[in-house]
Each structure stands twice: as C-alpha cells, then as structure tokens.
C-alpha cells in the first residue's frame, strides 16, 4: 500500500515508518522539519514537509494514499500554552481525516492516547474506576491534550458514519525506546515505592509500530479503539500488591492475566488485531534500572 505517516520524525512516527517499510509498504513520511536534499526518514521513499493545521497542506500530502497513519501531535499539555496544544492537535487530526474522507482513502490509523480516561495530566485528582483499565472505561479528560485525543476518536466515529473509510484508534501507554527506557522507567524499576500516574504501564515503541502495521492492514469495519501496552508492569512488580499499597481498596481490581500484569489491558488488541507484544523493559534495563550495554 501507499501509506502516509504523519509526524514521521517523532518517536512513534520513526518506528512506524521502519515497520511499514519492513512489511513491504510504500511509505511517505510527513513532518514539520524542513526537507533538504540529504534528508531521509529512516529509508522512507519520500519525505514531505507540511503543517497539517493548514487544510491545504494536509490535502496535498494525503492525496493518493491507500492508508494514513496519523501520529503527528504535540505529545503533552505541559510545554505549550493550552490553546496551542488544543488547536494544533485537533485541527491537524481534522484536516488529515477530512482529506482522507474526501480522497476516498480506505484506512485511517489514528494514534490516540492512554490519557483519554483522565490519566497523568488531570489538574484535579483522578483515579480510575477499576483496573486494569480497558476500552470500556469512561472518559474523563480534563487537560487539552487528552481532550484532543478524545475528540479525535469522535472524529473517527463521524468519518465512518458518513463515508466508507475504516478507522482504528490506538491508545498507546507511555511509549519507550532505547533512548529513554533508563530515564523514564529506570526509577520505577529501582524503587518499588514510587507511584505511577498510569498504573505502572508502558509501551515499547517497536511493539506499538507492529500494532500500527496490523491496524493499517486490517479489514475491521467501522471504528475500533484499542489500548496498546506492554503485558507487564514497569519493574515487573505484582500489580495487585502495588495497587493496594498505593491506593488501598479505592480502585477495584479486576481479574489479571498474570501477577505482574499491566494496569492497562491490551486484551482487545490481541484478540481482534492479532497483536502480540514481543518486547519488555527487561530487554533494555538490568534489575537496577540501568541500561544494558547491548541495548
């Protein structure tokens, strides 16, 4: 397929481009970075600069695609003014999806977020209604980033209602790669007393990329939402024990697939997409949370 990957220079975008190329697809990478003659996006056939908040530029890069993987976004609400996060993320998603609908692109993969229920950036305290969290959990976003991700999913619902496009929204947990495992997960591996705003969950960038390929190739109808998370907790700790230690009985615990199960369930993605995570923090870090020499 001819696949357009937006945000192709980002952590998720780079991994997605590599995985789609390895799967035999023709990939065009799109991002804000200015192209130069020598620029390549990890082997992508083409690279195009575009500001996707501009409808004309979004339409220009989507034309002719068989599938769109939309990873482009400001990734959190903390480093930009709230209105910038909201406007950038929501308008980019709207413009790219609108172009896909108008050009008859059959498949759209939307990178949403684990924050949709209200995790991580809530200004007032938030606790999930149960754990592990799954796709049925109610959405209570407070911050502009999580709101744009929820609204993005609603845009997918509207698109499939008015066209033949098939949409999949992936909600990855905290995405890690070889560059940031030690910085981000190392403290959680070393110290069992540390709390975690997303229930000790994480996602390997390359496992997420595998899910993106499956989503781009999927024939699932309508719009489906899938959480993508590693099957284990950061640090490999007993989930029931750490949940009780930090939250007492305030978060009802549902059945676990394994003692060290993640606080976010990816069972639906494994069942309907055929996704099988292959990587763990253990592939990158030792028992003290330090980077392995080979990682």
TrEMBL record:
Name of a matching Pfam family: Epimerase
Name the record gives this protein: NAD(P)-dependent oxidoreductase
PANTHER family: BIFUNCTIONAL POLYMYXIN RESISTANCE PROTEIN ARNA, NAD(P)-BINDING DOMAIN-CONTAINING PROTEIN
Phylogenetic classification of the source organism: Bacteria, Bacillati, Actinomycetota, Actinomycetes, Micrococcales
Residue stretches making up the NAD-dependent epimerase/dehydratase domain: 3-219
Superkingdom of this protein's organism: Bacteria
């Amino acid at each position: 397929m001819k696949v357009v990957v937006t945000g192709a220079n980002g952590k998720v975008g780079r991994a997605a481009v590599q995985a789609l190329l390895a799967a035999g697809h023709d990939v065009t990478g799109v991002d804000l970075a200015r192209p130069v003659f020598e620029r390549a996006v990890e082997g992508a056939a083409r690279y195009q600069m575009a500001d996707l908040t501009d409808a004309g530029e979004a339409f220009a890069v989507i034309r002719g695609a068989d599938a769109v993987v939309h990873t482009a976004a400001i990734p959190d609400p903390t480093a930009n003014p709230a209105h910038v996060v909201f406007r950038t993320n929501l308008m980019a998603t709207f413009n790219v999806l609108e172009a896909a609908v108008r050009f008859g692109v059959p498949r759209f993969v939307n990178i949403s977020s684990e924050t949709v229920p209200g995790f991580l950036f809530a200004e007032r305290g938030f606790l999930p209604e149960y754990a592990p969290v799954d796709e049925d959990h109610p959405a209570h976003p407070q911050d502009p980033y999580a709101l744009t991700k929820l609204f993005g999913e609603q845009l997918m619902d509207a698109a499939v209602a008015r066209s033949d496009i098939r949409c999949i929204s992936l909600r990855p947990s905290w995405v890690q790669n070889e560059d940031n495992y030690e910085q981000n997960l190392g403290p959680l591996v070393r110290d069992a007393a540390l709390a975690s705003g997303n229930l000790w969950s994480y996602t390997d960038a390359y496992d997420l990329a595998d899910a993106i390929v499956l989503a781009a190739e999927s024939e699932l109808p309508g719009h489906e939402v899938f959480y993508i998370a590693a099957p284990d907790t950061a640090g490999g700790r007993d989930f029931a024990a750490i949940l009780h230690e930090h939250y007492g009985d305030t978060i009802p615990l549902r059945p676990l697939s394994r003692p060290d199960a993640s606080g976010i369930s990816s069972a639906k993605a494994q069942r309907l997409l055929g996704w099988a995570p292959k990587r763990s923090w253990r592939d990158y870090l030792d028992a003290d949370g330090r980077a392995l020499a080979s990682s």
